[in-house]
Each structure stands twice: as C-alpha cells, then as structure tokens.
Amino acid sequence: ANHSVTHPHPYGISFNAEIDAAKRKIETEIPQQKIFTYAYPYGEITDSLRQHLVENGYCAARGVKTPETDDFVNSDSIDYFDTKAYSVMTETTLDDFAAQLTKVEQGGGMLTYLYHSVYSDSVKDFSYAWVKDSMFRQQLDTLMHYNLWVDTYANIIRYHRQHKAAKLETVKSTTNSYIFRLTTDQPFENPIPMTI
C-alpha cells in the first residue's frame, strides 16, 4: 500500500507531492508492483483525501482502528476507503495473534495485520510498536496452521469488490441442464467460486 512520501497529517497537504509521488516512485522502482491501496498516516482521513484516492484509481484504503465486527464478508455496508486493521504491538502475545486468526477461520471475514516496525539485531528500529524479528517469525509460523487465504490487501479487496458486484441469474433450465448469466460492474481479475 502507498503510505505517502513523508507520513504527513492529511490537512492542507499537496496530494500530488505526497501520495501521487510515492505511488510513482514505488511503481518506477518496482515495475511489476501496481499500487491500488493506501494506508492513511496516523489513520487520519479527510473527505478530500478520500475523493483523491477514488479519482486516482485506488480500490481501498485502511486506517489504524481495530475492526469492531468480524462480518466483513457478509456486510452490505462496507466502506472500502476506511477498512480496519489489527495493530500488532510490542506487547502483542502469540496467543493474542492466534486468537484473531481463529476468529477469522471460524467466522469468516478479512483480517489485516498492521505492523509499524520489525526490530532485529541488524536493523535496530525502535519505532512505535516495534515487534522483534523472532516474534514476527513465530507469528508467520503460527499463520501456517490455519486454513486461511493469505494474500495482499489489494488482491483481497479487489476480489471482495468483484464478488460483491457479481450477479448470477438463471437464463434457462431444463431437466438436465442450466444456462446461467454472470454479470458484474467490476473487472474479473480473480475466479469467483460458485455453489450451485
């Protein structure tokens, strides 16, 4: 996700200098990585910032607030430009980390972990909410024990938007055959599973 050039508060800034420039730099330095999402510095959102993101092809943006419900998949009122994230803090235990995974595995939904900083002996970063690299590795190992789809934030959001927009209707049915029509206003970038 794009996170801006200098991590400013969003009031009175140049979106071109902060957001568009960061997107251009990432896409220039990593040509295979296209930017479709934004992570709000400080979790702060303004109407003009949201509008800028929509007008410039972003599909979603996330803040820093923990989700209040786990009903992301089934909700009809998702604000894709204010999705939530579970902040992994210095004091987050492995049990706390696993509890979030268990909730999603059992109840469905989307879980976005927010890491501010990973500390190691070679990169001594004591930024806000740092997590030791050994704990980070344990968290990744824990993740492997769950039956979850793990992907980038952008891919999951694009899939979800596509799935929510898809409509399946029966065009014709006979005793031993069906013809369906699948329509959507979103581009098909991922397969949409169907149960018939």
Characterize the structure shown:
The chain is an alpha/beta fold and 196 residues long. Helix content is 32%, strand content 16%. The strands form 4 sheets. Strands 1-2 form a two-stranded parallel ribbon. β1 (37-39), α2 (47-55) and β2 (60-62) form a beta-alpha-beta unit. The relative contact order is 0.11.
Class by SSE composition:
alpha/beta
Q: Ends: how far apart?
A: 36 Å
Name the strands of the widest sheet in spatial order.
Answer: 1-2
Care to count the β-strands? 8
Low-confidence stretches: none
Largest sheet: 2 strands, parallel
Mean pLDDT: 86
Radius of gyration: 20 Å
Would you list the SSEs in sequence order as H and E?
HEHEEHEEEHHEE
Separate helix tally = 5
What fraction of residues sit in β-strands? Answer: 15-25%
Helix % is 25-40%
Shape: globular
